[in-house]
Amino acid sequence: ITLGILLTATIVALVYYRISASNINVIMFYTLALLFISRLTSGYLPGIAAAMISVVCVNFLFTYPYGQINFILEGYPVTFICMLVVSVLTSASASHMKRQSRILADREKKLAEAEKEKMRANLLRAVSHDLRTPLTGIIGASSSYLENEARLDTDEKRTMVRHIREDANWLLNMVENLLTVTRIRDDSASVNKSLEPVEEVMAEAVFRLKKRIPDAQIKVLLPEEFVMIPMDATLIEQVLINLMENAIKYAGSHPVLDVKVQNLGTKARFIVGDNGEGISETMLPHIFEGYMGDDEKSSDSRRGLTICKSIVDAHGGTLKARNKQEGGAEFSFELPVEEDDNNES
Predict the structure, then answer these.
(1) Which pairs with CB-CB distance under 8 Å and at least 24 residues apart come from 180-186?
(2) Distance (Å, whole) CA 202 – CA 279
(3) Biggest CA pair distance of the chain
(4) pLDDT at 177 over 80
(5) What pTM was estimated for this model as a whole?
(6) In whole angstroms, what separates CA 30 from the centre of its chain?
(7) 76-147 and 45-62 helices, crossing angle to 10°
(8) Residue 74: predicted pLDDT
(9) CA-based R_g, the chain, Å
(10) Cα–Cα dist 227/56, whole Å
């Protein structure tokens, strides 16, 4: 690197000298070369060697008598010392900057690794919350089938087996998608998106929640226009189910959910609101962290929100929580209606 930069500086200086017939600014080309060498190399040795070679080149090529080295020329020691000082100072500054850059890069890498491990830990804690219901359904249906097989007719048996298969498929999809979400911070992995109609995703989420909580009162409001969004439908359904289930748990007696989808043009906003007492102000800033204090029961129930945020983040969206002025809590997340050019390519 040092020799290449010095050779380039010498060629440029020779061209300039031939054109202008003046050696006044020749030294500036070598000073500029010293700056590049100090920036692109490590340590002090390349810069010091470059300073010595530059002074010799100026003396040999651009100072009378040409083609000879004359160390007793007037001003020569001053030129040599100045270039040496410039080289040492520039090398020291560049080395310091590089060292600081490495320290910052290592620190950022460690912080990223810590954040990734924290996310994975939160996801593992949330798995039990998100997969408990389908597992319970499978166990309950299979137990009922085994205990009452003699009293069940063919249609009832087929219905129970179909429910077991549906829950098992849902469980399989969730496990696969959860494994994908644990890798969302890696550049090589992302969720698999396809264009999905909002109406179908919302209907499937409400249907599955009704299977879990038959008495749930849910008011659904969808946009009049037909909206297609790039998403992993299974993951977004799980987000909606988690939000609705948490709203029912914390809204108190006789909860009524308002579930909406708003078309914002470039984005679609999903809203899940309830008519309960709202979220504690101390808990609100930490609602998506998986742990909100010493209340272990509350903390366990809210861990499903951690995976909701991870899923929404993986889709390039944002998830927020707030207390409504008229009472109750409201969770909302926005998803891009169209993929950006990079994702499409």
Answers:
(1) 180/314, 181/123, 181/235, 181/307, 181/310, 181/311, 181/314, 182/119, 182/120, 182/123, 184/310, 184/313, 184/314, 185/112, 185/115, 185/116, 185/119
(2) 24
(3) 116
(4) no
(5) 0.54
(6) 45
(7) 140
(8) 66
(9) 34
(10) 73
How far is the C-alpha of 176 from the C-alpha of 132, rounded, in Å?
16
Contact 219, 256 (CB under 8 A): yes
Residue entry with tokens 């008598």 = 65
Alpha carbon distance 228, 236 (integer Å): 13
Tell me the pairing of strands 318-323 and 329-336.
antiparallel
C-alpha 126/C-alpha 177 separation (Å) is 13
10 Å Cβ neighbour count for 85?
11
Neighbouring C-beta atoms of residue 63, cutoff 10 Å:
18
- The average confidence (pLDDT) of the chain is 80
Strand partners, 334: 269, 318
Instruction: Return the amino acid letter for 115.
Output: E
Q: How far apart are CA 236 and CA 145, in angstroms?
A: 32
By DSSP bridging, strand 267-273 and strand 256-263 are antiparallel
pLDDT at 96: 77
In order, the DSSP letters of 156-207 are HHHHHHHHHHHHHHHHHHHHHHHHHHTTTTSTT-----EEEEHHHHHHHHHH
Residue-wise DSSP of 124-170: HHHHHHHHHHHHHHHHHHHHHHHHSGGG--HHHHHHHHHHHHHHHHH
Note the pLDDT tens digit of each residue in 333-345. Answer: 999 987 544 444 3
Looking at the predicted structure, is the pLDDT value of residue 296 above 80?
Answer: no
Q: According to the model, what pLDDT value does residue 201 have?
A: 94
DSSP state letters, 286-340: GTTSS--SS-HHHHHHHTHHHHHHHHHHHTT-EEEEEE-TTSSEEEEEEEESS--
151 near 158, Cβ under 8 Å? no
